[in-house]
Structures are given as C-alpha cells and as structure tokens.
Amino acid sequence: TQPFAGKTAIVFGGSRGIGAAAARRLARDGADVVITYVSAPEKAAETVKAIEEQGGKALAVKADSADPAAIKAAVIHAVERFGQLDIAVVNAGILMIKDVADFSVEDLDRMLNINVRGVYLAIQAAAGFMQRGGRIITIGSNAAVRSGHPGSSVYSMTKGAVAIMVKGIAVDLAPQGITVNNIQPGPIATDMTSDMIDALKPMIPVRRAGEPDEIGGLVAYLASAESGYMTGSSITIDGGLAL
Ligand code: NDP
C-alpha cells in the first residue's frame, strides 16, 4: 500500500497549491519528501507539518528556481538528508498575464528564468543523482496546447517549451532508466488562479475547476514503477478545456 516506501522525492515549488498536493500524496504513499519554496516559508512549514501529521518525513528548503546555484543546492540538500533521490516533481512556476505590447524585457526574462531555465536546471540537477527507475515529472500547462486567452503569449510559450524539452531530455535519460513526463493541467483551484477561476468555469466542459489533489494522483502514477514504459509524454488534465 506504500509504493514509495524507502524512496526520496523533491518537489520544486512544494509549499502551496499543486506542488503541495503532490508532496502530500508522495509522502502518503511512503516517500521522504523535500519541498522548495521562495516567498512563503509559513506555507512551506504548513505543508511539512501536514506530511508529518500523516506519519511522513518532510523538509522545506528555500530555493529560488530563478537561481541556478539554489536549485543545485536544494538537490544536494535532499540527497544529504535522505541518502538518495528517486523522484523529482518540477512544479515551481509563475503566471503573468500581459498583452504582447506590454511585456517588458525584465518580465520576459523572469518568466523564462523560472518557467523554462529553472525547469531545465532542476531536471539536470535531479537526474545527476538518480539511479535506474528514477522518475522526473514536470508541471506544464494546457496553455501549451491552446493559448486562447488574451495576454497569455509568454506563459504559453514557456509551457510549450517545457513540453518539447521533456521529449528531448527523455531521449537523453532513457539509457539511464530514468523517465521524464509532463503534466498539463487546466484551471486548478489555487492561489495562482483565485481571481480568474469563476470566469473560466463556464468554458470548462466539466463545469468546475480541478482540485490540486487530482494532479497529485497523476503525479503518483507517473512516479510509480507502473508507468515505466511512458517517457517524454505530455498529459493534459483540464476538464476538457483545451478540446
Ligand atoms: P501557486 O502560485 O499556487 O504556487 C506556486 C508554487 O511554486 C509555490 O509553492 C511557490 O512557492 C512556488 N514558486 C513560485 N515561484 C518560485 C520560484 N521562483 N522558486 C521556487 N518556488 C517557486 O501555483 P499553482 O499551484 O497553481 O501552480 C503550480 C504549477 O502548475 C505552475 O508551474 C503553474 O504554471 C502550473 N499550472 C497551474 C495551473 C492552475 O490552474 N493553477 C494550470 C496549469 C498549470 P512560494 O509559496 O514560496 O511562493
């Protein structure tokens, strides 16, 4: 009943929302979990506490995904604390909605640094410590499939980059027995979407927002031994929105 007993997971951006749900789910299924955060130490502490209350082991590490050295340090911290690394969930990401005319170079760089460069570097750092059977899961977005909302060009671009990056990295890591897959959620009820979720609901075929735990379930499948034949895939989970 605990498929991840004896395994260690790192969740980049695991303090709140989807990342926290993934961390709780992996811990419930037996993994020791390291979560990173950047701005909300109290949320990170809450997630660690929730995991400990369900009998698991967790540790929060401050690591800005825009900072290459911090990403590497977080992975080393996880390996030093728990002795190995088996699962990496690369979830940290930001959303800025602005029309093409309004995007400054600074904002463009910030989006790319966290949502694209940070994802690549997190995968690179984590893979370096994994053995055969290692599992890497990115959180992209259904915005990589359909960029249908004004102001979403840069966000969609970053998530499109994640989808194709995962294919290339999957090929590189296949000989080492490590799989890399990408989850593409649609609207999930989190802090990121709190001011837009009600407007989106009528457009979602299932007429509701997704729950973070629903993404946690897919993370658990992709982290499991069962998913071993799947690599380089992007799986959209969006209530049918991008259809
Ligand atoms: P939230 O804004 O609720 O949470 C974001 C998480 O990422 C927090 O744990 C936050 O840490 C962390 N984070 C943000 N920036 C950084 C950074 N620079 N370095 C380290 N950690 C960082 O977002 P969601 O849970 O909604 O989204 C998570 C992922 O899922 C994102 O990649 C997002 O693009 C993607 N996604 C979300 C959808 C949705 O509808 N919610 C839909 C499709 C994709 P802290 O608490 O310290 O700020």
UniProtKB/TrEMBL annotation:
Q: Which domain of life does this protein belong to?
A: Bacteria
Signal peptide (UniProt feature, chain positions): none
Domain Ketoreductase: start-end pairs: 7-186
Protein family (similarity comment): Belongs to the short-chain dehydrogenases/reductases (SDR) family.
Task: State the name under which the record lists this protein.
Answer: 3-ketoacyl-ACP reductase
Naturally occurring in which organism (per UniProt): Silvimonas amylolytica
